[in-house]
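Second opinion, please. Please look over this fold, written as tokens:

===
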Amino acid sequence: MLGPTLTNRTKLLALAAVVALALAGCGAASSSSTPSAQDPADVVPSNALLYVSLPARLQSPAGPAFSAVLNRLFGGAAQAKVNHLLDKLAASAHTTFATGIKPWLGSHVGVAVTQFPSLLGLAAAGIGGGGSEQATIGRAVLADVAVIVPTDNPGAASNFLKLADKGGIPDGLTATVHGNYVLLGGQAAVSAVEHTTASKSLADSPGYSAMLARLGTQPVGSLYASARLAKTYLALVGAASKLPASIFATSEAQLNKLPASASELVALTATDTTLQLNLLQNGFPEKSQRVPANVGTLTGASWLALSTGSFNLPAAIQAAFKFGVSQGISQQAANESSKVQHAAAVVDDALGGLGPISLSMSGTSVGHANLGFSMTPSDATAAEHLLSVIYDLAHKDPNNGLQGSPTAFTLLTKHHQVLHVSEVAGRIQALIGYPSASAFLNSAVTLADNASYRAALAQLQADASVPLYVRFGPLVSLTAAQQGKAKAVLRKLSYLIVGHTPGDTRIVLGLN
């Protein structure tokens, strides 16, 4: 085995990319009774921080439906492009996809991150930057990552690995065949996989198996993350940024309250006419909403409808910003604490006191679109402050036709429509095209009466709250003058709808 070089490391990563793209893009077929159909999660340690799975059996429920969706969106040329990319990547291992990889390739690929102890040590030591330090960090990251591919042809897989190893595999990385699994990755991660038994595997863990069961169908791809990943992230950022420990105290306290099985699963599923992204949680507390989000009560002509119910979206944005400032800033920004504090103050001033939102857009031509916006502040003072801020900003532009007072005023849009902004019964409202707030919030015909909306609603969980609905047909009309690939894809989309039940959020993209 030769010493580590960039070329050899690139080869091993390219090899892993070939495997992943092959399964995601073309879907190697196999019988469910063969070793190649085994789930890589069967050998992933149950305490893995992160696990990505890309099942792609063409005869499975997920495979043909996903292929149909890709062909519907991008045409048959998409597969040819994937095949060309696969051959380019395989060339780095002195072979082709058809002759060197496909004969042994199983029906699934898994990528597991087992732990981050070595990377945490580097962060604590303050290692960063470039050159040799980057190489050290790279080895530390890869040490705990393993790519796992089941195979029913271990001999062909071994021959391929010998070809890939002609130039020498870098120190700290391993490519091997273990039983009916091809393993690629860091020595620590590969060793953990080799010593994992069925009863100690992720596939047999309560959280992972429960979320897959709730999904109810084979996913095209999925990503599993243990809550331990967030704890590791906090420790990593805390060590690297050298920020005061108090900044992380609240987040760490919340994470420490979670059960050991707390985890999340993001899974992509498909039918012939839909793509669904499912976000599942296990072991996390669910905060109940006094008023569930329900866009179905907004006007039936809406092609964009948003409702946050009693969920305070601006407050959530504000909290997320503060979290990002405290935990995602660079060391330089940490040293310039005054800038960080100023940024937080700006967010506080802009979002503080705001509340739940309803939004609707309708109309199919520029200059004749309707917009309705309603927001309920936390108190009257917050409403007055926000209106005053907006009024003062508008007052600086002499060409917008501003009329009225800070509590009720009108503006002219660039398409010469009148925007009415006011505070009514504790709500801040902004209207374009609607004769009154009642026409927006209390329409005689709502989305619940709309057949297209009801068809989209049928794709969601029973009793789901619905915070977002988009109909793409009117968007195509609004962008009639524009052309290009994006417009061509947009024509093939029918709707986007989001549904939420405790521990389960579903995002559905419908196709024409």
Summary: The first helix runs from residue 6 to 25. The CA atoms of residues 48 and 114 lie 4 Å apart. The radius of gyration is 27 Å.
